[in-house]
User: Which sequence fits this backbone?
């Protein structure tokens, strides 16, 4: 019962802090953190979602740290996540302040790798491989891929934050029995902050996440995914995170393929996003958002099944998922 009460406190405290900080940030920082026009955006708005979510998530987790007895080792890992998250947020904030030019990609990758190094230093890394040193390269790829995948998703109102909501909720439900309770509280704090911010992304006077918000969400989801124990019931449960973050990863894969087929650099911005292609094909933003949202929910249900279902069921899931992704890739690339 105590853990349930603390979970509710974490969720609502983070949501409240976000809701309170947004109008304060709008009053004092809106002019300085204003998005600039670009070929991918029809209008601009203050880039205040990132600062609000970052502040709310971190303050909530610090409060929880002082009122909760974390099991041995988990607090050490939480420090790594907070430190790495702060680096990613500051990088994104500097990028937002320098819009429309932004920071050079090599610098972004260097800071993202440094943040990943902080995670590894504090014991947060992929643990499927028994030798930790052998897992480090995969940890770097995982963190960098998801950090930038969420940023790529931030090209339509509600698209990025809704994926963060579903991923965080999936982590909460899948990791509830986990002894690494920092994952539970971290996901709940992120969930509360995102739920409080989401409506402002659709409001008449919109607020955008900005690079600081989108990359912070991607980094946090990626880091928390590595802290859970998925193989309590079945040995192949470690595959669950692939389903938890399937939509952001597929969107990044789609954009990269689309750009390569056009002879473009996959690291440079373009209008080849799946959501933008669907929009040009006549789908409304609401329908696109719902499609992405439902896909994420189904993938997270599949993630839960992977942690407890027989092997033949999991194999069928991967076959179905592969077929669905192949179909979406083909249809999406056919949209101009």
Assistant:
């Amino acid at each position: 019962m105590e853990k349930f009460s603390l979970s509710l406190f974490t969720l609502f405290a983070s949501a409240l802090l976000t809701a309170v900080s947004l109008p304060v940030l709008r009053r004092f920082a809106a002019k300085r953190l204003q998005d600039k026009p670009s070929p991918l955006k029809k209008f601009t708005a203050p880039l205040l979602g990132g600062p609000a979510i970052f502040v709310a998530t971190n303050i909530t987790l610090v409060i929880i740290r002082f009122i909760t007895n974390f099991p041995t080792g988990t607090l050490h890992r939480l420090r790594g996540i907070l430190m790495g998250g702060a680096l990613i947020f500051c990088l994104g904030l500097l990028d937002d302040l320098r819009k429309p030019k932004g920071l050079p990609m090599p610098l972004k990758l260097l800071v993202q790798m440094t943040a990943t190094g902080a995670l590894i230093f504090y014991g947060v890394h992929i643990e499927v491989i028994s030798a930790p040193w052998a897992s480090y390269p995969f940890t770097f790829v995982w963190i960098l891929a998801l950090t930038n995948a969420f940023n790529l998703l931030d090209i339509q109102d509600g698209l990025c934050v809704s994926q963060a909501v579903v991923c965080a909720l999936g982590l909460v439900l899948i990791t509830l029995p986990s002894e690494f309770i920092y994952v539970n509280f971290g996901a709940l704090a992120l969930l509360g902050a995102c739920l409080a911010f989401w409506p402002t992304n659709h409001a008449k006077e919109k607020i955008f996440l900005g690079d600081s918000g989108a990359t912070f969400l991607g980094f946090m989801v990626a880091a928390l995914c590595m802290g859970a124990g998925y193989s309590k019931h079945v040995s192949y449960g470690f595959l669950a995170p692939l389903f938890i973050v399937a939509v952001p990863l597929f969107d990044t894969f789609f954009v990269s393929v689309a750009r390569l087929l056009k002879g473009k650099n996959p690291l440079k911005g373009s209008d080849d996003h799946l959501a933008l292609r669907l929009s040009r094909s006549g789908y409304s933003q609401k329908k696109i958002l719902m499609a992405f949202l439902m896909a994420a929910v189904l993938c997270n249900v599949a993630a839960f099944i992977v942690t407890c279902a027989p092997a033949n069921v999991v194999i069928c899931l991967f076959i179905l998922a592969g077929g669905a992704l192949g179909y979406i890739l083909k249809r999406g690339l056919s949209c101009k």
In short: The mean pLDDT is 88. The two ends are 53 Å apart (CA to CA). Residues 2-334 form one domain. DSSP finds 13 helices and no strands in the chain.
